Amino acid sequence: MDLNQSMEFTPSATSSPQIHNFMPMTSFMLPFHQPSNEDGEEVKQSHLLVQKRSLELFWYQQMLEIHNISAFKSYHQLPLARIKRIMKSNKDMISADTPILFSKACELFILELTLRAWLHTEEGKRRTLQGCDVSKAIRQEEALHFLFDVVPLINHKDDDGKFLEENEHHPVNQPQFPLLDMNA
Question: What are the residue boundaries of the Transcription factor CBF/NF-Y/archaeal histone domain, all occurrences included (predicted)?
Fold first, then answer.
């Protein structure tokens, strides 16, 4: 094919743009989507439905990935040496396979928390994930409530410097532990 040849593109009003990402996006999730004059409750219900479907799709994709990995022991994204060092602090380590399974569990936890936070980012019509999105994701899902004392409540400020959401701050009753640098 000659690259110097002119090509004609005709835009089609019926086709939606293709976004190559880890999951398909509905028109509600696209950045140019303008919501109609729906009731605020209907918009919230629609957003919750999109979140639920996104999470279901996420877990379906993760299960497919796990089933399609032929050498599970050699495929991991988190450093096994760090996980083994943490697990050695417990004298009741059962199996050599435990760090591998723990690594995959941590990876899935990080991915799901990131996806939940990203859905809050999109709800706020932003393209940068912020700490307030992670905080909202933790407070919205009951299974993540164990992180209340670890993750501080962060209020997001709009362009005028006003807080978009006012919530009470939960005092930390436990000592703060430093975050581990997973790249070290």
Answer: 77-138
Which amino acid does the sequence have at 12? S
Q: What is the DSSP letter of 1?
A: -
Tokens read off for 107: 């990876």
Provide the residue type at 43 as one letter.
Answer: V
Non-local (6+) Cβ contacts of 151 within 8 A are 134, 135, 138
The CATH class, in words, for 76-158 is: mainly alpha
- Does pLDDT of 182 surpass 50? yes
- Measured between alpha carbons, how far is 18 from 15 in angstroms, rounded to an integer? 9
- Indicate the pTM of the whole model: 0.51
Domains of the chain, by residue range, sit at 76-158
Q: Please count the other Cβ atoms lying within 10 Å of the Cβ belonging to residue 79.
A: 15
Q: Which 3 state secondary structure label does DSSP give 163?
A: strand
pLDDT tens-digit map of 70-117:
665 566 677 777 777 777 776 666 666 677 778 888 889 999 999 999
- At 23 the three-state DSSP class reads coil
Handedness of CA 62, 132, 17, 4 (dihedral sign): negative
